Structure prediction request, 269 residues.
Amino acid sequence: MKLLDLHTHSSYSDGTYAPSAIVDLALRKGLYGLSITDHDCVDGIEEAIEYAKYKNIIFVPGIEFSCFYGDEEIHILGYNIDHKCPSLLDITNRLRNARLERALKMIQNLNSMGFEISFDDLEKQSLTSIGRPHIGQALVEKGYARSIQETFEKYLSQGMPAYVERYRLLAQDAIRLIHEAGGVSVIAHPYLIKNQSCIDALAAMGIDGLEAYHSSHSNSNEKRYIYMARRLGLCITGGSDFHGRDSDFDFFGRVGIKLEELDSKILNR
Prediction:
């Protein structure tokens, strides 16, 4: 079976493995193909392309945008993108700066609550893209919480005392940017979307695909989203959402999409 995992994250965003290490892991798992889809970031793509060039694996350049449709947070994957596209690089730079400003404000909030945490504690965790998981990990390492989940439940989620509102990239703008970069736009992990009617709305905006296979999806979810994709005229994709956590290894190399199910436009420009 030729399986491709089209949803993984490297140390350039909130993953724990370098892009080259993810390629090696994918090879050991027997994957036919791989995409690294770091959050709002393409900095690790060049390393992965160069490393995978002489390996027996297909590599698809990708990204995962965190964006909004109304008040609903939607994650949109971009595949086969030109990772050097000027408009794409402009928005990733803006998003990086917005993430930095947000992280600094959340650290200030935590400091005012009596937590001894600084930006230096975060920088050692991520090469480029600082986010709430890095703050949560720093709190765990300093003994303020037992898990990252606990830090979100008590401090970092919306409505909690350290939370700061994020920069809002609109879903229609993410779709447009992916298309400008020559890529294919796909709704990530649709089961996690609270308002499922957003999927039809995004299809009307010109989204290209739906991630039917994902580590959060049951077999019945997969069938549901395959049917929905066909109804809306969308291609289907799949991936494990690998970040390098211990639990992720239950899915990496097992959750993805078979080559025969994959639309060729995701593999070829």
User: Anything to note?
Assistant: The longest strand covers residues 58-69. The mean pLDDT is 93. Residues 21 and 152 are 28 Å apart (CA to CA).
